[in-house]
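Assemble and predict.
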Amino acid sequence: MGKLKRRICPNDVTINIGKDAPVPECPIPGESWKEITHDDTGTWLAKWGDPIKSKLIKYVSLGASSSWKGQSDKEKYEKARMLKSYIGNIRAAYIKGFTSKDITKQQIAVATYFIDKLALRAGNEKDDEEADTVGCCTLKVENVTAEGHNKLKFDFLGKDSIKYENTVEVELPVYNAILKFQKDKRPGDDLFDKLDTSILNAHLKELMPNLTAKVFRTFNASFTLDDMLNKETKDGDVAQKVGVYQHANKQVAIICNHQRSVSKSYSAQISKLNEKIDELQAYLKELKIDLDRARKEKPPLKSLDRIEKKIAQTSAKIEKMQRDMHTKEDLKTVALGTSKINYLDPRISVAWCKRHEVPIEKIFSKTLLEKFAWAMDVDPDFRF
DNA sequence: GTTCACGACTCAGAAAAATCGCT
DNA sequence: GAGCGATTTTTCTGAGTCGTGAA
């Protein structure tokens, strides 16, 4: 913690380049690149070892808007779409596995169920010096508590030490299996002691070509967005439709547990908004008194029309502020961006925008439009 | 076959920068 | 239209996933 990182020099850097391509000029006179390679199986352009974490390799690769990255992004979503036609069988298989006599098979079934239902990450083994975080396969006994009425309480630190807290009702066989897996174990012991990510992924590959645990997160996120958009979009103006989109986006972020820290000035901002609302309401009250007097033709003599107009304007302003405040509170700890960038098939959003005449710029920023260039010409009828 | 290290890629929130919207 | 605080977008780089190949 708190180390200065030394400068990276050309002789740290390996360049990956086509056999006949000209080698980029070394920017520091008298020095040279560590190595020039011609690896056409990789997508990286340059790499070097991190001076502090010796095991860590840093890469330079093409930007997100490149057709190369776009292609692999598209393949990711196509794989997730393929899961759609396999998911019925996969679910049937793990339900059967819940009561398997073979404990490894039973653990695989329950773990797959968690990954499908709760969008948990796979959970690779980690070195001791890394943060104490877990995923599905590395869940500890104390991370899951049986709460009665078939409810399981999950409580653990996931990727980036983000807390995952969720209580869910599960099928009785799952509940019983968890009790069984916990039996005769101590805190700190693995809940799934017969399992790791390679065993789990090897099993998933038997069910669908190239299937791995992470595909379920993409599948669940994109499926949820597509489903909610199609169920909840009603006639209305663009702002209302964008609201529907944000609501669906939020549900996805909750499923994926994408969080953000509450800004330091949050409470100050809220009280400021409240003050403003109070002020406006006091003003509205005055306006109503004025209106009353004007109707009775008492001074101060003001035009009825103008007062009524002002009342309408002020009421609308108050309503908007209250709505904004509600949204602010609602999204205080939820990060919508991560799922939009990494988990939601952009073709869902593009097709929805086309169907409902929402400008795509309302959904995607400039860089996202560039990143998702490959998805822009999708058919309006596209469904995930 | 199994374990293990590691290489190459995707995904994560925080911080920084740019933009918005109000006075 | 300047000045400001809030909000949104972009950048940054560490933290995961997953495959491969050597021991």
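Chain A has a mean pLDDT of 90.
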